[in-house]
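Re: export button greyed out
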Amino acid sequence: MTTTATNVNTGSNYVQGATGEWEVVIGLEIHAQLATKSKIFSASATAFGAEPNAQANLVDLGYPGVLPVLNREAVRMAVKFGLGVGAKVSRRSVFARKNYFYPDLPKGYQISQYERPIVEDGTVEVLLDDGAWKTVGITRAHLEEDAGKSLHEGLGAASGIDLNRAGTPLLEIVSEPDLRSAKEAVAYLKKIHTLVRYLEICDGNMQEGSFRCDANVSVRRVGQPKFGTRCEIKNVNSFRFVEKAINYEVMRQIDLLEGGGQVVQETRLYDANKDETRSMRSKEEANDYRYFPDPDLLPVELDAAFLDEVRRTLPELPDEKAARFQQQYGLSAYDAGVLTASRELADYYEAVVREVGGEPKLCANWTMGDLSGFLNKENLEIGQSKVDAPRLAGLVKRILDQTVSGKLAKDVFEAMWTEGRDADAVIEAKGLRQITDTSAIERAIDEVMAANPKQLAEYRSGKDKLFGFFVGQTMKATGGKANPAQLNELLKKKLGG
Amino acid sequence: MSLTRRDVEGIAHLARLQVTEQELPVYVDSLSKILSFVEQLSAADTAAVEPMAHPLEGEVQRLRPDEVAESDRHEKYQANAPQVKAALYVVPRVIE
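Workaround output, generated via the alternate export path:
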């Protein structure tokens, strides 16, 4: 598994530098916006895209004398995540103030959790490119409030502050430094992304910033026990950029160290346009956050009944679903992994299988093949598919009852997608019905044999390879509609003389 | 416990306070005294004491239902702001 052109595949993820091999060490901090209706400590709405400051009330604005009151739903969602990653859910957790000055943080502190987070010590299993599973540790997940947004367009020498986002509940999910390449980091990030959507605690929308990630990256020479000095990369808002930003940062650090330099622990910003990271020195001086327990908030205590209540709402999780798909439908680990990457895709697939009444492998091939191909091409989610599950099932049924060949079915699917019609309508309108009438196929074979006497003679004198030529010619003569199995069988008989 | 000049400069910067050259030694001295006073606490044996996050013993945080109960009143709130444009609070430029 190579990540960049300069990586050498040593059976692991070591990166080849000019003076030797390096090991990459990555930990991720993921911020997932919790899908509550109101904010974590106030009754303002959290909807995305409202007019500036229309959803910022006195608590969010940090007016003197106001008090935060914790949203039960945000707590429930954090607990749900903890149970979903097999973590320890703290029966007693504490909120703390993280102090720093920034215009989008009106109070001068962010309410977060420090010493006693709500979730500790979880794990997730991540499927790597080579088919191996890797266990990634989750150190902790804690509740906190989001900050506002600074805007710099059209305000001249000033910035504009929109505090609608201030106070939106976040779950910060901190991994152990267990990841050893950019690809592993992305695989882990995708797993958490899948998980929070399965749990219905975050919409996962990276473009709107509902799911974001900072990466702590360091390198060390292979065999060295101590971690190198790390840099934190901020502002990476897509899976692709996470991979690119980490790979850039890895090479930057290796070049620096091999050139006799030192890595400075700092925050760096990823610039997607230039594909590079650069230092954000101004944030460094504020790195002493002077955490202390927030006197406005009492410790949160959760009783066993609450935890049980949340546990009962846990859905079938991605790993469980993938295992069931392998067992129930006879799918490979890879196929089951792809089909369970989102709950919606898994539901779509199961709806197709149900409608067809079996043939899970064929249904999987169509869902992962043509359907996913068209979705990717048009950058659509499964929920926006132009061919719904019953219609795809309709096409699969026509393949199974031999109305249409597997090959022509691809053309049928494309027409279904672009014209919004069902399989039967497309097959009729385009005359794509498969020819299964033996005499019609035989007639076509006779014509092909008559038109190619030379090849026929050669075939009969032992040139077996020409069989493919006859298949092709006969298929062409029937407009690609002959049933392939029948055609093969009849050809063999006829060519044999 | 005694603080250095650099400690005090750092604390002042974090709190966005301007401390003059003349004031610095005064703060180094008085803050060090405060710390020494508080440090008497470390003489107490706390090995068996559970850390306390809040002085209200036995009280726990009440949770509120997830309901939106606030409407858009930004015009009223922004009447207090030094500068507003297009419903944004305007501040000196901050950009990385």
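Residues 318-430 of chain A form one domain. The button fix ships in the next patch.
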